[in-house]
Amino acid sequence: MKSRAAIAWEAGKPLEIAEIDVEGPKAGEVMVQIKATSVCHTDAFTLSGADPEGNFPAVLGHEGAGVVQEVGEGVTSLKPGDHVIPLYTAECGQCKFCLSGKTNLCSSVRATQGKGVMPDGTSRFSKDGQSLHHYMGCSTFSEYTVLPEVSLAKVSPEAPLDKICLLGCGVTTGIGAVMNTAKVEPGATVAVFGLGAIGLAVIQGAQMAKASRIIAIDVNPDKFDLARQFGATEFVNPKDYSDPIQQVIVDLTDGGVDYSFECIGNVNVMRSALECCHKGWGESIIIGVAGAGEEISTRPFQLVTGRVWKGSAFGGVKGRSELPGYVDDYMNGKLKIDEFVTQDMAFEEINEAFELLHAGKSIRTVLHY
Ligand code: NAD
Ligand code: AHE
Ligand code: ZN
């Protein structure tokens, strides 16, 4: 199968739009025609070379939606024509992690996924005979892509694929982090660091959870209008203060917030996010992804005195069981997605989508094949 794709040949270079070869699905695999994909900061992070799991050359992209084209031997839960969202966090339902009831981090395909290959250790992508790596088990920057059956959520065929593609990462991650990881309760105070798609989805989740105060923090004040639309009640630009930002938030909240969320990937901000939490009970959730070699630090006394540091991957959401419900909530008007889409473009303009994200001029650009 020939497919339009964007190839990341090496770190730090723009993607090349090219026609690639995609092999059909092997046993337990599914070929999907991606109809729409968007660019998440994690794609830019990996392309920058900062990802310890970055493999090149690769077909990046992990936030997409499409239609099943062909299924491999033994695939029973999907058939051609089904509408699907690719999952970078699979759900096999059978591994130790899935059975634990404690995490969404399925282990069934994660080891090979991190090496940029399918579970049998090989790639389905090539260009002029040269093998290309898969990415996060999804590779949505190819019109035709191949995934393990366990890495696809079947969703309502009524839902617009160019909107629900955002449930493949950004929107689900932010809302899930509030609902599953922090379990924000009505009346709680919340601080959100970083107002990209992830931070804005956290704000939407905090409003759904009936938080009493939602403090939106970003160094780019252009993000504040949208944050207000999603439910933020206060706005703080750290550049307007000489005090450390954790002190500013502690002063604003009579000792600190109940929950904070780091949605940037900056280890210094992660420390601030922890330290702006209330003594005795405040919880800080790390969502942002930091580069190879970076580490977090704080005085252990911050934890001894009751603050809690947690992390969240894909919002703790089990994709195959829970994403269909997210899609239904969107269709029933209970979940906002359209507001995250700041630009729509043809797939071929993908490098421009990366530039807009870096320039702070987009929340999500949806690319149409
Ligand atoms: P984005 O680039 O759209 O948004 C980041 C925001 O942070 C921007 O608005 C930027 O102005 C702001 N910012 C940068 N430095 C800041 C600072 N020092 N103080 C305050 N604000 C600052 O990115 P995104 O797509 O929303 O992704 C956010 C982070 O979440 C990335 O690190 C991404 O890799 C990560 N992520 C993690 C998961 C997960 O499952 N854990 C899922 C998706 C994305
Ligand atoms: N590969 C990196 C870490 C990247 C990372 O943390 N990824 C997040 C999803 S970001 C989506 O935009 C995640 O869920 N990680 C859990 C997992 O299993 O990958 C590294 O540091 O090696
Ligand atoms: Zn992402």
UniProtKB/TrEMBL annotation:
It holds the Pfam family ADH_N. Its cofactor is Zn(2+). One of its GO terms (molecular function) is S-nitrosoglutathione reductase (NADH) activity. InterPro entries: ADH-like_C, ADH-like_N, ADH_3, ADH_Zn_CS, ER, GroES-like_sf, NAD(P)-bd_dom_sf. It is an enzyme of class 1 (oxidoreductase). It catalyses: S-nitrosoglutathione + NADH + H(+) = S-(hydroxysulfenamide)glutathione + NAD(+); S-(hydroxymethyl)glutathione + NAD(+) = S-formylglutathione + NADH + H(+); a primary alcohol + NAD(+) = an aldehyde + NADH + H(+); S-(hydroxymethyl)glutathione + NADP(+) = S-formylglutathione + NADPH + H(+). One of its GO terms (biological process) is formaldehyde catabolic process. Its EC number is 1.1.1.284. Residues 12-367 form the Enoyl reductase (ER) domain. GO terms for cellular component: cytosol. Gene3D superfamilies: Medium-chain alcohol dehydrogenases, catalytic domain, NAD(P)-binding Rossmann-like Domain. Keywords: Metal-binding, NAD, Oxidoreductase, Zinc. PROSITE patterns: ADH_ZINC (PS00059), PUA (PS50890). SUPFAM superfamilies: GroES-like, NAD(P)-binding Rossmann-fold domains. Has high formaldehyde dehydrogenase activity in the presence of glutathione and catalyzes the oxidation of normal alcohols in a reaction that is not GSH-dependent. In addition, hemithiolacetals other than those formed from GSH, including omega-thiol fatty acids, also are substrates. Also acts as a S-nitroso-glutathione reductase by catalyzing the NADH-dependent reduction of S-nitrosoglutathione. PANTHER family: ALCOHOL DEHYDROGENASE, ALCOHOL DEHYDROGENASE CLASS-3. Belongs to the zinc-containing alcohol dehydrogenase family. Class-III subfamily. This is S-(hydroxymethyl)glutathione dehydrogenase. It comes from Chromohalobacter japonicus. The lineage of its organism: Bacteria, Pseudomonadati, Pseudomonadota, Gammaproteobacteria, Oceanospirillales.
